[in-house]
Protein backbone atom coordinates (compact mmCIF):
# COMPACT_ATOMS: atom_id res chain seq x y z
CA UNK A 1 0.00 0.00 0.00
CA UNK A 2 1.28 3.45 -0.88
CA UNK A 3 1.31 5.81 2.07
CA UNK A 4 1.55 9.58 1.72
CA UNK A 5 4.84 10.12 3.55
CA UNK A 6 6.98 12.93 2.20
CA UNK A 7 10.43 12.05 0.89
CA UNK A 8 11.85 15.07 2.65
CA UNK A 9 10.56 17.86 4.91
CA UNK A 10 11.54 21.53 4.63
CA UNK A 11 10.43 24.66 6.46
CA UNK A 12 10.14 26.68 3.27
CA UNK A 13 10.66 26.24 -0.48
CA UNK A 14 13.78 28.40 -0.48
CA UNK A 15 15.48 25.77 1.71
CA UNK A 16 15.19 23.21 -1.08
CA UNK A 17 18.65 23.89 -2.41
CA UNK A 18 20.18 22.75 -5.66
CA UNK A 19 22.71 20.28 -4.17
CA UNK A 20 19.82 18.53 -2.36
CA UNK A 21 17.91 18.12 -5.59
CA UNK A 22 21.01 16.95 -7.43
CA UNK A 23 21.83 14.38 -4.75
CA UNK A 24 18.28 13.03 -5.09
CA UNK A 25 18.72 12.74 -8.86
CA UNK A 26 15.99 15.31 -9.42
CA UNK A 27 15.90 17.03 -12.83
CA UNK A 28 12.48 18.64 -12.61
CA UNK A 29 10.06 19.99 -10.00
CA UNK A 30 6.27 20.14 -9.99
CA UNK A 31 5.31 23.17 -7.95
CA UNK A 32 2.15 23.62 -5.93
CA UNK A 33 1.08 27.26 -5.63
CA UNK A 34 -1.28 27.88 -2.73
CA UNK A 35 0.34 27.61 0.68
CA UNK A 36 3.62 26.59 -0.99
CA UNK A 37 4.89 29.43 -3.19
CA UNK A 38 2.56 32.00 -1.71
CA UNK A 39 -0.42 32.39 0.56
CA UNK A 40 -3.78 31.64 -1.02
CA UNK A 41 -4.81 35.22 -0.28
CA UNK A 42 -1.78 36.72 -2.03
CA UNK A 43 -1.51 37.65 -5.70
CA UNK A 44 2.17 36.84 -6.18
CA UNK A 45 5.04 35.16 -4.35
CA UNK A 46 7.73 37.10 -2.50
CA UNK A 47 10.91 38.01 -4.38
CA UNK A 48 12.93 35.36 -2.55
CA UNK A 49 10.65 32.69 -4.04
CA UNK A 50 11.24 34.03 -7.56
CA UNK A 51 14.98 34.04 -6.86
CA UNK A 52 14.81 30.41 -5.71
CA UNK A 53 12.99 29.35 -8.86
CA UNK A 54 15.42 31.29 -11.06
CA UNK A 55 18.39 29.61 -9.42
CA UNK A 56 16.89 26.19 -10.09
CA UNK A 57 16.13 27.05 -13.70
CA UNK A 58 19.55 28.53 -14.34
CA UNK A 59 21.05 25.26 -13.15
CA UNK A 60 19.01 23.13 -15.48
CA UNK A 61 16.17 22.06 -13.20
CA UNK A 62 12.90 21.99 -15.18
CA UNK A 63 9.89 23.62 -13.58
CA UNK A 64 6.18 22.87 -13.95
CA UNK A 65 3.20 24.32 -12.06
CA UNK A 66 0.70 21.69 -10.91
CA UNK A 67 -2.15 23.27 -8.99
CA UNK A 68 -5.52 22.13 -7.71
CA UNK A 69 -6.68 25.75 -7.81
CA UNK A 70 -9.85 26.14 -9.86
CA UNK A 71 -9.04 29.61 -11.19
CA UNK A 72 -7.08 29.32 -14.45
CA UNK A 73 -6.13 33.01 -14.44
CA UNK A 74 -4.38 32.68 -11.07
CA UNK A 75 -2.40 29.61 -12.12
CA UNK A 76 -1.59 31.02 -15.56
CA UNK A 77 -0.34 34.33 -14.14
CA UNK A 78 2.01 32.60 -11.73
CA UNK A 79 3.24 30.10 -14.32
CA UNK A 80 3.91 32.80 -16.89
CA UNK A 81 5.78 34.89 -14.34
CA UNK A 82 8.24 32.02 -13.92
CA UNK A 83 8.18 30.78 -17.51
CA UNK A 84 6.68 27.37 -16.74
CA UNK A 85 4.07 25.07 -18.22
CA UNK A 86 1.03 24.70 -15.99
CA UNK A 87 -2.09 22.77 -15.08
CA UNK A 88 -4.94 24.14 -12.98
CA UNK A 89 -7.64 21.98 -11.39
CA UNK A 90 -5.11 19.13 -11.38
CA UNK A 91 -7.15 16.96 -8.99
CA UNK A 92 -4.08 15.94 -7.00
CA UNK A 93 -3.65 13.22 -5.71
CA UNK A 94 -5.07 11.74 -8.91
CA UNK A 95 -2.26 10.43 -11.06
CA UNK A 96 -3.23 11.95 -14.40
CA UNK A 97 -1.94 15.45 -13.68
CA UNK A 98 1.41 14.14 -12.45
CA UNK A 99 1.76 11.85 -15.47
CA UNK A 100 0.95 14.64 -17.91
CA UNK A 101 3.44 16.95 -16.23
CA UNK A 102 6.16 14.30 -16.42
CA UNK A 103 5.44 13.81 -20.10
CA UNK A 104 5.52 17.54 -20.73
CA UNK A 105 8.92 17.80 -19.03
CA UNK A 106 10.23 14.69 -20.77
CA UNK A 107 11.45 13.19 -17.50
CA UNK A 108 11.16 9.84 -15.74
CA UNK A 109 9.02 9.88 -12.62
CA UNK A 110 12.03 9.11 -10.42
CA UNK A 111 13.69 12.30 -11.73
CA UNK A 112 10.83 14.51 -10.51
CA UNK A 113 10.24 16.17 -7.15
CA UNK A 114 6.77 17.35 -6.14
CA UNK A 115 6.96 20.46 -3.98
CA UNK A 116 3.85 21.16 -1.93
CA UNK A 117 2.32 21.93 1.45
CA UNK A 118 -0.25 19.16 1.76
CA UNK A 119 0.09 15.50 2.67
CA UNK A 120 -3.07 14.13 1.08
CA UNK A 121 -2.80 15.90 -2.26
CA UNK A 122 0.82 16.76 -3.09
CA UNK A 123 2.65 14.07 -1.11
CA UNK A 124 0.17 11.28 -1.73
CA UNK A 125 0.18 11.97 -5.46
CA UNK A 126 3.97 12.02 -5.52
CA UNK A 127 4.19 8.72 -3.66
CA UNK A 128 1.59 7.11 -5.91
CA UNK A 129 3.51 8.15 -9.03
CA UNK A 130 7.03 7.24 -7.89
CA UNK A 131 8.05 10.89 -7.55
CA UNK A 132 9.82 12.47 -4.60
CA UNK A 133 7.49 14.46 -2.39
CA UNK A 134 9.11 17.46 -0.75
CA UNK A 135 6.80 19.03 1.78
CA UNK A 136 7.07 22.55 3.18
CA UNK A 137 5.31 24.15 6.12
CA UNK A 138 2.17 25.73 4.73
CA UNK A 139 2.04 29.51 4.33
CA UNK A 140 -1.75 29.26 4.78
CA UNK A 141 -1.89 28.86 8.57
CA UNK A 142 -4.33 31.80 8.80
CA UNK A 143 -7.09 29.82 7.05
CA UNK A 144 -9.79 28.48 9.39
CA UNK A 145 -9.42 24.97 8.01
CA UNK A 146 -5.64 24.85 8.28
CA UNK A 147 -5.50 23.31 11.78
CA UNK A 148 -8.22 20.68 11.29
CA UNK A 149 -6.51 19.67 8.06
CA UNK A 150 -3.07 19.63 9.63
CA UNK A 151 -4.33 17.48 12.50
CA UNK A 152 -5.23 14.79 9.98
CA UNK A 153 -1.82 15.14 8.32
CA UNK A 154 0.28 14.85 11.42
CA UNK A 155 0.74 11.07 11.50
CA UNK A 156 2.27 11.23 8.04
CA UNK A 157 4.43 14.28 8.74
CA UNK A 158 7.73 12.43 8.81
CA UNK A 159 10.20 11.47 6.13
CA UNK A 160 9.72 8.21 4.33
CA UNK A 161 12.23 5.57 5.32
CA UNK A 162 14.63 5.27 2.43
MG1 LIG B 1 -1.12 23.90 -1.48
Characterise the protein shown here.
The longest helix has 12 residues, at 47-58. This protein has a single domain (9-154), classed as Rossmann fold. The model has no long low-confidence stretch (mean pLDDT 97). It contains 6 helices and 6 strands, in the order E-H-E-H-E-H-E-H-E-H-E-H. Strand 3 (62-66), helix 3 (72-81) and strand 4 form a beta-alpha-beta unit. A 6-stranded parallel sheet has the order 1-6-5-2-3-4, sandwiched between helices. The chain is an alpha/beta fold. Helix content is 35%, strand content 15%. It starts with 7 loop residues before the first strand and ends in a 9-residue tail after the last helix. It is globular and about 35 Å long. Magnesium ion binds next to loops.
Bound molecules: magnesium ion
How many helical elements? 6
* End-to-end CA span: 16 Å
Q: What structural category do the secondary elements indicate?
A: alpha/beta
The strand order across the widest sheet is 1-6-5-2-3-4
By CATH, the architecture is named: 3-Layer(aba) Sandwich
Which superfamily, in CATH terms, is the homologous superfamily? HAD superfamily/HAD-like
Task: Please indicate the count of domains.
Answer: 1
* SSE string: EHEHEHEHEHEH
Strand % is 15-25%
Q: Which residues sit in consecutive blocks of at least 5 with pLDDT less than 50? A: none
How would the global form be characterised?
A: globular
Amino acid sequence: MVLPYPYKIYDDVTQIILPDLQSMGVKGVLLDIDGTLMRTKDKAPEDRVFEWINTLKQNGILVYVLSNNKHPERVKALAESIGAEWTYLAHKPKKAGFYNAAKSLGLEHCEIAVVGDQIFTDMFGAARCGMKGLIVNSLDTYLWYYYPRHLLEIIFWREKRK
